[in-house]
Specification:
The complex is a heterodimer of chains A (449) and B (157). Chain A has 449 residues and is mainly beta. In chain A, 14% of the residues lie in helices and 42% in strands. In chain A, strands 1, 2, 3, 4, 5, 6 and 7 form a 7-stranded mixed sheet that branches. In chain A, strands 10-9-8-31 form a 4-stranded antiparallel sheet, with no helix packed on it. A 4-stranded antiparallel sheet of chain A has the order 11-12-13-14, with no helix packed on it. Chain B has 157 residues and is α+β, with helices and mostly antiparallel strands. Chain B folds into 2 domains: 1-30; 33-155, 60s Ribosomal Protein L30, Chain: A. Chain B has helices spanning 3-28, 64-79, 97-117, 142-148, and strands at 31-32, 35-36, 44-46, 49-50, 52-54, 85-90, 125-131, 150-155. A 4-stranded mixed sheet of chain B has the order 5-8-6-7. A two-stranded antiparallel sheet of chain B has the order 1-2. In chain B, strands 3-4 form a two-stranded antiparallel ribbon. In chain B, helix 2 packs across helix 3. The chains are: A mainly beta (449), B alpha+beta (157). At the A-B interface, strand 15 and strand 27 of A face helix 3 and strand 7 of B.
Amino acid sequence: MRKVIFLIYVSLFIFNWEKAWSLIEVDITRGNLNPLPLAVSPLSVDQNSKEKFKDSLKLEDIGAEISKVVENNLRQSGLFNPLDSKAFLQKPDIAHVKPRFEDWALIKAQALITGDVKIVDEKLRVEFRLWDILAGKEIMALAFTTVSENWRRVGHIITDKVYQRLTGEKGYFDTRIIYVAEEGPKTSRIKKLAIMDQDGFNTKYLTLGNELVLTPRFNPTNQMVTYLSYFKNLPRVYLLDIETGIQEVVGDFPGMTFAPRFSPDGKKIIMSFAKDGNSDIYTMDLESREVEKITNHPSIDTSPSYSPDGKYICFNSDRSGYQQIYVMRSDGSKVKRISFGNGLYGTPVWSPRGDLIAFTKLHKGKFYIGVMRTDGTGERLLTENYYQEAPSWSPNGRVLIFYRETKSDSAGKGFSAKLWSIDLTGYNERMVKTETDASDPSWSSLLTD
Amino acid sequence: MSLNKIFRNTLLVFFASILLSACAVKTTSKMQGDVYTGKDTVEYLASGVPDRVFFATNETVLTTASRETLRKQASWLRKNSKINVVLEGHADERGTREYNLALGERRANAAKDYLMTYGISGNRISVISYGKERPVDSGSNPLAWSKNRRSVSVKAN
């Protein structure tokens, strides 16, 4: 897998990168109710390459397929409105060289993405350009080469570049989601670790479902995952290398370890260890294997999550009598409660930007996903439902993914568990398609930066 | 309207309300507060020795009925000194997954501590929490949740 990632090398190949200025500006500070209209022209493919891709990938028109990936990503973001390609007047190959801006302005496109795909030395080479229709100029041009099987990732990388150019923030499209795939009745649910691209494609199952697995989380720096497994009926935190499939137990604890997460530098795992009815927070250094006890309190302390600079930890504790959110220094000192609203608070997760903590709130029989500042002020509830929990941030801190369960009748019918995403602003709530029922999502970092 | 008819209607309403209140008693009688007191899902370690105890929402305190059940388990375990038990702690589905794992562990340990005060060696008792992962009743209603907030003693050998 790593080899594949490095095979994608992005090469800047065209002029006026810095000089480029544009009239287009996407406002992402508020919920965007007027998504920017833009046109994603199908990437053009020469006949010879088209035939080769048809043989190797079984795709009728790889150019159109990559464009569909880009178009879908942009639409899902809620910030862009990709226009119907039936309205396009110019042919893809000509548009890529010199778009007739009047034609694109006529269909109200403010930006245009064009491109070209071909086979070079058995590899897939893509070139794409982003045009500002109103200013009548090119504002970005990039080319890169990768193995053909990675064609969907090409679409994600193009989306990331376009998103960054137009919003001024990094994208989150060339990423993956690890989650728990669920099947069977509630009383004997079968759970497997699963991984998929952020847009729901390329699902792979990483465990067979022989033992219960819960709460997988990505290492923000590499392809490692930490999760809870009931292997041999001993609930313990495990480490899994997605590239090699090798797994190992984390530490040698005489009891249940759970609620694992990586430190931002990826070198430590922070988790809860439960013994004799008391759960405290511990860290283990993955290199030295040194274990450190961080909290020492007779209450339940769980769901720890580091701030992106690694200096603080937010966590869930019932030391006040009920579940609330606390923040402390990473050595366990200066513990301070930050949640004071009505109801119970759980699953705090620190935003990768550092300024917010996302959480689950339970109040009067309803569950909410919300965010608050790291001192507990400015609480905002983004979504209310019968049951939902466990938000995970997109790597740019714009979007939260979480899971939602539906109510079942007394026979257990009507139950489902699905992944949902919502913008930080509370707009653009969407179900994330998965092959099976799903829970406990965790968002990876960008695969290429 | 004849007096007779009014009388008959009143009587009907009267019987209907008796019927309704009987129904209400029937369902609530399985819960005290929100702790399950019924026997629907209970299994037995031996005759007269129920295998499980139930908890109130978010609580880990043993009720009077739970303590009585655990005393029966302790006396049975004293008589059957070769048998070890696993205490499986559970929570209902109305809580976050990680907190529920801790809560299940705390519930099972509350039961373990009580068995130990009645003379059962800690070596014979192990504890595992399933959080909300293994409900016994798959319904989404208060009665189902009350059955699921439990600690179950299972023979380990």
